[in-house]
Amino acid sequence: MRIILLGEPGAGKGTYSAELVKKYKIPQISTGDMLRAAVKAGTPLGKQAQEFMKKGELVPDSLVIELIRERIKEGDASKGFILDGFPRTLPQAQSLEKMLQSMNIRLSGVLKIEVAKAILLKRLTGRRVCKGCGATYNIDTMKPQKDGVCDKCGKELIQRPDDKPETIENRLTVYQKDTAPLIEFYENKGLLKRVQCEGEYDEVMARIFSALEKTAKV
Ligand code: ADP
Ligand code: ZN
Prior knowledge:
Layout: E1 2-6, H1 13-24, E2 28-30, H2 31-41, H3 44-55, H4 61-71, E3 81-84, H5 90-102, E4 109-114, H6 117-126, E5 127-130, E6 136-138, E7 157-158, H7 165-179, H8 181-188, E8 192-196, H9 201-215
Parallel strand pairs: 1-3, 1-4, 2-3, 4-8
Antiparallel strand pairs: 5-6, 5-7
The site of zinc ion has 8 residues, from loops.
């Protein structure tokens, strides 16, 4: 299964991806996670990306396209993958299409995660991530057992720099301008499946799985 998760910042792409990884045993490929790792490691790519990310701007297409080109060739992605946070612009989507064509593979589907703006804002401002393992929590809806401490590895939970309120607005604006056009792009290809992702977590997951069973011909 090869799928794209599309949706606003805060829609829950990362959280849902983690469940899909468990169920389908295919890797999650998140350009956001890859870029954050590059920033942390201080690589040349990380140094270039950092300034854009801090402001909530997109990192230039050429950089993320190269990241993905290398990543989808790796062995663990040969049976499928979940793309989380890529593509995010039309040029990225067009490049991905060419890459997949040259590898002789097709996308199974594109899931559009739908969430009301008020909920997005709440999820983003309440989000905390583990400094150690990257696990995600929410101070309102997915609290760790002990405040500020990761259940999985015991390290400290922090707020991502781009989850500060001033930056959040910019990320949502950038999404509308650059990423929203992908909805029509994939709709025209008959690949788009919208999933309403508000409400109880288990119900949302069930809707996502059922949408995938219907769309994805694996
Ligand atoms: P979110 O979906 O919550 O905004 P991500 O972790 O996907 O978070 O992305 C964080 C930041 O990383 C983005 O605001 C952007 O600066 C950069 N980024 C991630 N993926 C891409 C991409 N495909 N193209 C350009 N920039 C990206
Ligand atoms: Zn942790």
